[in-house]
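One-letter codes give the sequence; each number marks local geometry. A record appears below:


***
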Amino acid sequence: MDLVDNAIHIALLLDEELKNAKVLNEIVSLVQKERTRRIVLHIISSSPPPLYIEKLRDTLVNNIAYTIIVKYEGANIKNMERLSSETGRPLYILR
């Protein structure tokens, strides 16, 4: 069984200010709704790797109970179209 099987796919649009509390609440809601503890975060950000991780640090640390896979998808918002077709599962979008 692959780690991304039955995972929640979330496209997270990172800007300069990430509202960690809001993102945490939405992730917890999605985990409860989907009844899974696996999350794939598809990061869309103008900050290159590894700089975008600094913005995500609190979100990742506060969700240690979940399996979280972080994938950097670049800065182009058009990547969401490709993501939605590749995942084969619903793609949730958070800002």
Summary: The chain has a mean pLDDT of 85. The chain has three helices and four strands. Helices lie at 20-34, 51-61, 79-87.
